[in-house]
Design goal:
The chain is an all-alpha fold. The chain has 5 helices and no strands. The longest helix is centred in the N-terminal third of the chain and has 26 residues.
Amino acid sequence: MMNRLCQLLIVLAVFYALSYKTVLYWSAQTRPWQPVSAWGRVIFYYSFFTVLANLLLAISSLVLLFKPHYDSRLFRIIRLDALVGIIITMIVYNGVLRSIHHPPTFELCMTNELLHLVVPIIGILSWLVWGALPSD
Protein backbone atom coordinates (compact mmCIF):
# COMPACT_ATOMS: atom_id res chain seq x y z
CA MET A 1 0.00 0.00 0.00
CA MET A 2 2.80 2.45 0.86
CA ASN A 3 4.53 1.79 -2.44
CA ARG A 4 1.39 2.72 -4.38
CA LEU A 5 1.09 5.86 -2.27
CA CYS A 6 4.68 6.78 -3.20
CA GLN A 7 3.93 6.18 -6.88
CA LEU A 8 0.80 8.36 -6.61
CA LEU A 9 2.75 11.11 -4.86
CA ILE A 10 5.38 11.11 -7.62
CA VAL A 11 2.73 11.26 -10.34
CA LEU A 12 0.76 14.07 -8.70
CA ALA A 13 3.82 16.17 -7.85
CA VAL A 14 5.33 15.91 -11.33
CA PHE A 15 2.09 16.50 -13.21
CA TYR A 16 1.22 19.46 -10.98
CA ALA A 17 4.63 21.09 -11.45
CA LEU A 18 4.81 20.42 -15.17
CA SER A 19 1.25 21.55 -15.87
CA TYR A 20 1.75 24.77 -13.90
CA LYS A 21 4.97 25.58 -15.72
CA THR A 22 3.49 24.59 -19.09
CA VAL A 23 0.67 27.10 -18.60
CA LEU A 24 3.17 29.71 -17.49
CA TYR A 25 5.45 29.17 -20.47
CA TRP A 26 2.46 29.04 -22.82
CA SER A 27 1.07 32.34 -21.60
CA ALA A 28 4.14 34.51 -21.11
CA GLN A 29 7.72 35.03 -22.15
CA THR A 30 9.33 35.35 -18.72
CA ARG A 31 12.93 35.69 -19.91
CA PRO A 32 14.34 37.56 -22.93
CA TRP A 33 16.23 34.47 -24.13
CA GLN A 34 13.09 32.30 -24.35
CA PRO A 35 11.42 31.74 -27.73
CA VAL A 36 8.83 34.36 -28.70
CA SER A 37 6.03 31.98 -29.71
CA ALA A 38 3.96 30.10 -27.12
CA TRP A 39 4.61 26.73 -28.78
CA GLY A 40 8.30 27.52 -28.96
CA ARG A 41 8.44 28.26 -25.23
CA VAL A 42 6.60 25.02 -24.36
CA ILE A 43 8.83 22.94 -26.64
CA PHE A 44 11.87 24.72 -25.19
CA TYR A 45 10.71 23.93 -21.64
CA TYR A 46 10.08 20.25 -22.41
CA SER A 47 13.59 19.90 -23.80
CA PHE A 48 15.19 20.38 -20.36
CA PHE A 49 16.80 17.26 -18.89
CA THR A 50 15.06 17.84 -15.55
CA VAL A 51 11.63 17.90 -17.17
CA LEU A 52 12.31 14.77 -19.22
CA ALA A 53 13.71 12.85 -16.23
CA ASN A 54 10.74 13.80 -14.03
CA LEU A 55 8.28 12.98 -16.80
CA LEU A 56 9.86 9.57 -17.37
CA LEU A 57 9.71 8.81 -13.65
CA ALA A 58 6.09 9.97 -13.44
CA ILE A 59 5.01 7.87 -16.43
CA SER A 60 6.68 4.74 -15.06
CA SER A 61 5.16 5.44 -11.64
CA LEU A 62 1.74 5.88 -13.24
CA VAL A 63 2.04 2.46 -14.87
CA LEU A 64 3.02 0.90 -11.52
CA LEU A 65 0.18 2.70 -9.79
CA PHE A 66 -2.39 0.87 -11.91
CA LYS A 67 -0.41 -2.31 -12.65
CA PRO A 68 1.91 -2.91 -9.67
CA HIS A 69 3.16 -6.23 -11.08
CA TYR A 70 3.79 -4.97 -14.61
CA ASP A 71 7.09 -6.16 -15.98
CA SER A 72 8.73 -6.16 -19.37
CA ARG A 73 12.23 -5.63 -20.66
CA LEU A 74 11.32 -2.21 -22.09
CA PHE A 75 9.63 -1.16 -18.84
CA ARG A 76 12.71 -2.13 -16.79
CA ILE A 77 14.85 0.01 -19.11
CA ILE A 78 12.45 2.94 -18.70
CA ARG A 79 12.48 2.62 -14.90
CA LEU A 80 16.27 2.45 -14.81
CA ASP A 81 16.56 5.45 -17.16
CA ALA A 82 14.13 7.36 -14.96
CA LEU A 83 16.16 6.58 -11.84
CA VAL A 84 19.49 7.53 -13.42
CA GLY A 85 17.97 10.72 -14.86
CA ILE A 86 16.42 11.76 -11.57
CA ILE A 87 19.68 11.11 -9.67
CA ILE A 88 21.60 13.23 -12.19
CA THR A 89 18.96 15.94 -11.92
CA MET A 90 19.20 16.04 -8.13
CA ILE A 91 23.01 16.01 -8.00
CA VAL A 92 23.59 18.61 -10.73
CA TYR A 93 20.88 21.02 -9.63
CA ASN A 94 21.53 20.84 -5.89
CA GLY A 95 25.29 20.62 -6.21
CA VAL A 96 25.91 23.16 -8.96
CA LEU A 97 22.89 25.15 -10.10
CA ARG A 98 20.94 25.92 -6.91
CA SER A 99 23.17 28.87 -6.01
CA ILE A 100 22.68 30.59 -9.37
CA HIS A 101 19.01 29.79 -10.06
CA HIS A 102 16.46 31.91 -8.21
CA PRO A 103 12.84 31.52 -9.38
CA PRO A 104 11.04 34.90 -9.25
CA THR A 105 7.73 33.80 -7.66
CA PHE A 106 6.65 31.57 -4.78
CA GLU A 107 4.79 29.21 -7.14
CA LEU A 108 7.87 28.78 -9.29
CA CYS A 109 9.96 28.13 -6.18
CA MET A 110 7.50 25.42 -5.16
CA THR A 111 7.50 23.73 -8.56
CA ASN A 112 11.27 24.05 -8.69
CA GLU A 113 11.64 22.28 -5.33
CA LEU A 114 9.19 19.58 -6.40
CA LEU A 115 11.11 18.81 -9.60
CA HIS A 116 14.64 19.09 -8.22
CA LEU A 117 14.39 17.83 -4.65
CA VAL A 118 11.08 16.28 -3.53
CA VAL A 119 10.36 13.99 -6.50
CA PRO A 120 13.99 12.81 -6.81
CA ILE A 121 14.11 11.91 -3.10
CA ILE A 122 10.78 10.06 -3.23
CA GLY A 123 11.80 8.31 -6.47
CA ILE A 124 15.15 7.18 -5.08
CA LEU A 125 13.65 6.07 -1.75
CA SER A 126 10.91 4.19 -3.58
CA TRP A 127 13.55 2.39 -5.62
CA LEU A 128 15.66 1.58 -2.58
CA VAL A 129 12.76 0.34 -0.43
CA TRP A 130 10.67 -1.57 -2.97
CA GLY A 131 13.06 -2.20 -5.83
CA ALA A 132 12.72 -1.56 -9.52
CA LEU A 133 9.22 -3.01 -9.76
CA PRO A 134 7.29 -2.47 -6.52
CA SER A 135 4.58 -4.98 -5.74
CA ASP A 136 1.86 -5.11 -3.09
